[in-house]
């Protein structure tokens, strides 16, 4: 069966929209998300446009800061500092990746943890790993919401996460662990990736390699969540999972597009509302 990320993300956005409508009807200040994009990476431009569009859909305010690829690190940091101090701004997101001359870690550290809607700031990362109630990165939160949509009970299940990035692999592994799954993180150096994946009741793939996971690597009946966003030779969007060979083996599977992708943006709206509320 297919997990319809498009429909589930719509439901999440509608939850946020209803809450924002309540805020507006009480005459309170409207939440505001600020997105910063540096340079003209076409994929980043599409993502950012969709984030601004989603904010408008929910009724939130948004602000787009577009900086040239050659902007200095200092200039970017000073823009962030202005937004940190701006009482009308609830969430700050700097779209990644950044040009090579800018230190991403420095930029993430500079965003006020209270406005860090991505959940990338070290104090939010620490909070997640210490089991505190903190801002959770959008894509991992979206993956969990997809599992919740099928009412999947993770207790005692084998979850395999392929990929160990700070944005997806590591945080999603922690969230699965919090639900009492037995979690394995596989990566590019894993010996016999197929054998590891075949143990998975839940397989989450986030590496950025088109078609890495094939049907022979999937346990019959498993839940397969594809976080990949790749372009194939014809320029078509495709995931890390070879859908054609995996779908007949899996119990549940997310498509690309229309799976995890729209969830990321929907959870960003949730995170923005959360930052607004805690401020
Ligand atoms: N680039 C790819 N994914 C993300 C994300 O979740 N947040 C930001 N800021 N940049 C990204």
Layout of strands and helices, then pairs:
Blueprint: H1 5-25, E1 32-38, H2 42-58, E2 61-67, H3 73-85, E3 91-94, H4 104-110, H5 122-129, H6 138-149, E4 158-162, H7 169-178, E5 182-186, H8 193-197, E6 202-205, E7 223-226, E8 230-231, E9 237-238, H9 243-246, E10 252-253, H10 260-278
Parallel strand pairs: 1-2, 1-3, 4-5, 4-6, 6-7, 7-10
Antiparallel strand pairs: 8-9
Helix pairs in contact: 1-10, 2-10, 6-7, 6-10
How would you characterize the overall build of this protein?
The strands form 3 sheets. The protein has a 5-stranded parallel sheet with strand order 5-4-6-7-10. The protein has a 3-stranded parallel sheet with strand order 2-1-3, with helices on both faces. It is built from 10 helices and 10 strands. The model has no long low-confidence stretch (mean pLDDT 98). The relative contact order is 0.16. It has 279 residues and is an alpha/beta fold. It is globular and about 50 Å long.
What share of residues is helical? Answer: 40-55%
Order of helices and strands, N to C?
HEHEHEHHHEHEHEEEEHEH
- Order of strands in the sheet with most strands: 5-4-6-7-10
Compute the separation of the termini in Å: 41 Å
In quaternary terms, these chains amount to single chain
Radius of gyration: 19 Å
- Please state the average pLDDT score: 98
The number of E-state strands comes to: 10
What structural class do you assign from the helix and strand content? alpha/beta
Strand fraction: 15-25%
Biggest beta sheet summary:
5 strands, parallel
Ligands present:
guanine
Based on CA inertia axes, which overall geometry fits?
globular
Which blocks of ≥5 consecutive residues have pLDDT under 50? none
Count of discrete alpha- or pi-helical segments spanning 4 or more residues: 10
